[in-house]
Amino acid sequence: MKERVLHLLKQSCPEFISGEIICRNLGISRTAVWKHIQTLRSSGYGIAALPHAGYRLLSVPDRLYPEEIRDGLGTEFIGRQVYYYEHAISTNETARELADRGCPDGALVIAEEQSGGRGRLGRKWFSPYGKGIWCSIILYPPVNPSDAPPLTMLGAVAVARAIRKVAHVEAGIKWPNDVLLDGKKICGILSEMNAEIERINYLVIGIGMNVNVEEFPEELEETVTSLKIYTGQPVKRTVLLQEILKEIEQLYKLWLQNGFQPVLRFWKEMCVMLNRMVRVNGIKDVIEGWAEDVDEHGNLILRLGDGSLKGLVAGDVSLQGGFDLQAGRREGSSL
Ligand code: BT5
């Protein structure tokens, strides 16, 4: 009901709407309307109240409230159910707990801050209060577990497309899970799966995006950025998140219907590291080579110095800087 009161306030904004019209529209008493107005105010909404005019929405707080995310979202199932937290240890962790209890397909877990946000291999993810999009989406894809790994890449495509659309900047993708602006990391994606041999129980796509972060810990300063630092402008997080959710739904449906190839095509168009010399820090070793391709399973295909091809499932890629493509190719083949 609070959400519906808010919706009416937004519809009539910048005009006043009388308490009586709200009562009639929603079939509730004046006291009930007043209580909802008070609740909205305590959540940070600025609402003017005048005896003969009614109520007027003055300001909306910079929070990722479920009612803000759902307002005008237009997706079929992604983000229709939102679990909102001021604070979470890790939204991926919370998402797994919710999925274990059977939450709806496409449910979104979002937190204003995370104290134990994590990346791959348990690395720490910096997630300050109110400055980013720290969220996880729960999916129940009807596919074999072996077909699921490309979903991380699908997440990266969705984020990069949303950034381009909302902030009009050229976000690029680096294998396997980073979104970059000008070579600096702005977003990381962590997908986790709970599965049996032939069946996925659920899958969680965790997205960490630096939207309005202004300062980073010293050890990250050189290699990361945020949309605000890059563009000089704050970006409305709800608008960006809605766009990400829409993109994820579209790409997810495309993937289920047509397989990974169409999504992979988008991924390659935005990838900033194909046809370059790269160094990959794997779990066991470091490999250098020419980033020749990414296959339909999401493996990075490197051409090594002896001309052979090697497929990599995971690793951290750094670009070997300062090359033009031809020079890179020559150097690559002489490794
Ligand atoms: C990732 O891991 O890039 C995946 C990050 C996923 C975070 C989201 S937030 C919501 C959800 N809930 C979670 O608990 N996690 C997900 P990886 O490729 O392993 O990169 C981790 C490395 O990125 C760290 O070791 C740092 O070097 C760097 N890093 C940490 N915080 C960062 C930040 N805010 N922005 C850019 N880089 C960061």
Overall number of domains: 3
User: CATH class of the largest domain, please?
Assistant: Alpha Beta
Please identify, by name, the CATH architecture of the largest domain.
2-Layer Sandwich
Uncertain spans: 322-335
Q: At the fourth CATH level, what is the homologous superfamily of the largest domain?
A: Bira Bifunctional Protein, Domain 2
Q: Oligomer, anyone?
A: single chain
Shape summary: elongated
Give the helices and strands as they follow along the chain.
HHHEEHEHEEHEEEEHHHEEEEEH
- In which order are the strands of the major sheet placed? 3-4-5-9-8-7-6
- Gyration radius from CA atoms, angstroms: 23 Å
The CATH topology label of the largest domain is BirA Bifunctional Protein, domain 2
Fraction of residues in helix? 25-40%
Enumerate how many helices there are, as a single number. 10
